[in-house]
Write a structure and sequence with these properties.
mainly alpha; Sec10_HB; coiled coil
């Protein structure tokens, strides 16, 4: 309807756009001219639709009734089916129960039949065994009337099995009667029980076992592995095959061929009479142990193919290798030396034995690991290897300590021999003073380094032989203690020898001290001898400083070695590290004591020469010129110049040799002694003003020199000396002003004032008494 009417409406819309006149015409006509016809059509359609709805509703009601009837029938059918299925399940349950009951009955019947069959079989076997047992129990030692089974080579396995069963039964029967089997064998009669059977069975088993072993040997020589395996399987019934295993291992060529053992010795030790060295032994052991490993590997392949229990055979084989072949070689290689009569150092001494022991132990440990890789069953091959060296390891610490002592003694003898040669040939053409110092052998840092190298080698052996931390720490501590003893003794003796030079120089000085009333010729000779003694003292001073320097370097080497190599081995064990530190301090205390005494002697030597130079070079006119009106000399006195030059020269070695607190203490002590000696020396002279200026110049020179000591207390003393020297320069009436800023020097200044040449003429004694009384 829309398609029929819509074009007309669209045409009307188009026409309405043509103008207002036409629009007015449209408005005056009806909007839907066909509405009446459509309304009638709609009413007829609605009536028809209502009729159709009533028809469809009626059909739906009829269908609903039919569905309800059919659903009722279906439910009834399902109920009947469910009841039938329940009955079916009940039938199946009864059937299953019946089947289960029948099955159980059948199983019981089967068990009874199997048991009956087993009993029948057992009874049959028992009858057969009793028949065989009666044959063995017929008469003692008679094995000729036995069944063919026991002599048929093709049925050896069966015969062996039966013989073992009979033997077990007979021995059990005898055991119930309280008779030991050992008393039966060889002493059996036919009078009672199964004693005869036991004896005959024992003889037969022995004969059968020997026969099988012979067949096994023959097959082994022909390399018939199948026959060997068959024999080994049968022999496993006799003592679990132990005899076959041991027999196979014992017949290996490396255990019975003497030439093999001799070849081992030649390979490791070389030809008889040749020099044995650890490196050659190491190469020989490596070659030999490689050969042994290859041999065992080849035997392992045969054993795996032949024996039912190859691991047990490998265990026996490896044990035999270590206990026989390796032990025989080690017995020749490692001859434990006596600690009472040590081997000569020319023949290698104890060190050669220890090196051989370390090489043999290390290489044998490698062999044990290789054999473990090849296979050795349940054998503790590492433990067995350790047991080979137990006798050597038990006394190892004592041998190591004795070796280090032997090396030290040999080195000392060598050094003494060198010192004697040096002394005999080196003093020709030298001055007497120089020979005093050179005749004493100096400490050598190279020698101490050699001691440390010996100790390092010994520590490496300790590490090799000691598996437990406690044992390792104990051995390392003992070895390190040997080093401490060696170094302490060596450097202490070296310092003492250097001190001997100082002592001899002091004796030379004392020998040429003369009185005042001597002739000029004697005095000149004494002066010449004093110069020689001074040269000896200076040379001895330098030698001792070199000894102190080398002593410090040696101690530093030992301390560094302890920190780098020893500490880490001692730290895992309580107290061990602290104990070694204490021992190190104790061991070095003797050297410290010798060094302290020597440094005191050095100071005495220096001061003796200073006093000699002052006494020889200082003139009375140096500080009291005859004409006080001339221009004063601002140069230091000759005595001062000589003393400073001597100190600069001799102390150069001290500045190089000493370090830290040792250097500071030594120079401070020397500075104090120099101050005291100069003050004592100057109190022998009188001073006029120009002499006071000269003295002040000397004090300045000394003060500038001692500043190199870096000793504040000494510098202060020389500064005060410079102030006190002013008491010779100022006029008497100005003396009181000198002490206003430094009252602490009044007492010493009072002694200096008494040295003024006008002390009496100016009546300074009374002035000073009043001055110090008023100041007090």
């Amino acid at each position: 309807m829309v398609n029929d009417l819509l074009p007309a409406f669209q045409q009307d819309d188009a026409d309405s756009a043509e103008g207002p006149t036409k629009f007015a015409q449209v408005v005056s006509s009806p909007l839907f001219p066909e509405v009446d016809a459509l309304l009638s059509l709609f009413r007829d359609s609605c009536k028809e639709l209502i009729d159709l709805r009533k028809q469809i509703d009626g059909k739906l009601n009829n269908l609903k009734k039919d569905v309800t009837v059919q659903d009722t029938k279906h439910r009834k059918t399902l109920a009947e089916l469910e009841k039938g299925v329940d009955g079916l399940f009940s039938s199946f349950a009864r059937l299953d129960s019946r089947i289960s009951s029948v099955g159980q009955t059948a199983a019981k019947i089967g068990d009874h039949l199997q048991s009956a069959d087993a009993q029948r079989e057992t009874a049959s076997q028992t009858i057969e065994l009793i028949k065989y047992l009666m044959e063995f129990n017929s008469s003692p030692g008679d094995l000729m009337e036995l069944s063919p089974l026991f002599s048929d080579d093709s049925r050896v396995a069966e015969a062996a099995s039966i013989a073992q069963k009979l033997r077990s039964f007979a021995e059990e029967d005898i055991g119930r009667q309280g008779i030991s089997v050992s008393s039966v064998v060889g002493n059996a009669t036919a009078s009672r029980g199964l004693e005869v059977a036991v004896a005959n069975l024992q003889d037969y088993c022995n004969e059968l076992e020997n026969r099988l072993l012979s067949r096994f040997d023959a097959a082994s020589q022909r390399r018939e592995l199948s026959t060997m395996a068959e024999c080994a399987k049968i022999l496993s019934q006799f003592n679990r095959g132990t005899s076959a295993m041991q027999h196979y291992v014992a017949t290996r060529p490396m255990f019975i061929d003497v030439e093999v053992m001799n070849a081992d010795t030649r390979l490791v030790l070389g030809d008889q009479g040749s020099q044995v060295s650890p490196s050659n032994v190491a190469r020989g052991l490596s070659s030999l142990y490689k050969e042994i490993t290859d041999t065992v590997r080849k035997e392992a392949a045969t054993i795996m193919a032949v024996f039912p229990s190859p691991n047990e055979v490998m265990s026996i084989l490896v044990q035999r290798v270590l206990e026989q072949r390796v032990t025989a070689l080690l017995d020749k290689l490692l001859v434990k030396p006596s600690l009472v009569n040590l081997p000569s150092i020319k023949d290698g001494g104890l060190l050669l034995y220890l090196r051989m022991l370390a090489v043999a132990y290390e290489k044998t440990q490698e062999l044990a690991r290789d054999l473990r890789a090849v296979g050795c069953g349940d054998l503790d091959v590492e433990g067995l290897t350790e047991s080979l060296f137990s006798a050597h390891k038990d006394e190892y610490p004592e041998h190591e300590s004795a070796s280090l002592k032997q090396l030290y003694q040999a080195k000392m003898e060598e050094l003494r021999a060198e010192g004697q040669v040096s002394e005999g040939s080196g003093t020709i053409g030298r001055s007497k003073g120089a020979s005093v110092a050179s005749s004493h052998q100096q400490i050598s840092v190279t020698v101490v380094s050699e001691f440390v190298r010996w100790n390092e080698e010994a520590i490496s052996r300790c590490t090799l032989f000691s598996s437990q931390p406690a044992t390792l720490a104990a051995n390392v501590k003992g070895v390190f203690t040997c080093l401490l003893d060696e170094v302490s003794q060596y450097i202490t003796e070296g310092l003492e020898r250097a001190r001997d030079g100082l002592t001899e120089a002091a004796a030379l000085r004392e020998r040429f001290v003369l009185g005042t009333s001597v002739s000029r010729r004697v005095a000149a000779a004494a002066a010449s001898a004093a110069e020689a003694a001074a040269a000896a003292g200076e040379s001895s001073f330098r030698s001792f400083m070199v000894a102190v320097q080398r002593c410090g370097s040696s101690v530093a080497i030992v301390q560094q070695y302890f920190a780098n190599s020893i500490s880490r081995l001692l730290l895992p064990v309580d107290v061990a590290h602290a104990s070694s530190c204490e021992e190190m301090a104790t061991a070095m205390s003797s050297a410290e004591g010798a060094a302290y005494k020597g440094l005191q002697q050095c100071i005495e030597t220096v001061m003796a020469e200073v006093e000699r130079l002052l006494s020889a070079e200082q003139k009375a006119t140096d500080y009291r010129s005859p004409d006080d009106g001339i221009i004063p000399d601002h140069r230091p006195t000759t005595a001062c110049t000589r003393v400073v030059a001597y100190l600069s020269r001799v102390l150069e070695s001290a500045f190089t040799a000493l370090e830290g607190l040792n250097k500071q203490a030594f120079l401070t002590e020397l500075g104090n002694r120099l101050h005291k000696g100069l003050v004592t020396h100057w109190q022998k002279f009188t001073f006029n003003p120009s002499g006071g200026l000269r003295l002040k110049r000397d004090i300045t020179e000394y003060g500038e020199f001692v500043r190199s000591f870096n000793a504040p207390t000494v510098d202060e003393k020389f500064e005060l000396l410079g102030i006190m020297a002013n008491v010779f320069i100022v006029a008497p009436e100005s003396l009181s002003s000198l002490f206003e800023g430094t009252p602490s020097i009044r007492k010493d200044a009072q002694r200096f004032i008494q040295l003024r040449d006008d002390y009496k003429s100016a009546k300074l004694a009374s002035k000073l008494s009043s001055l110090f009384a008023s100041s007090g």
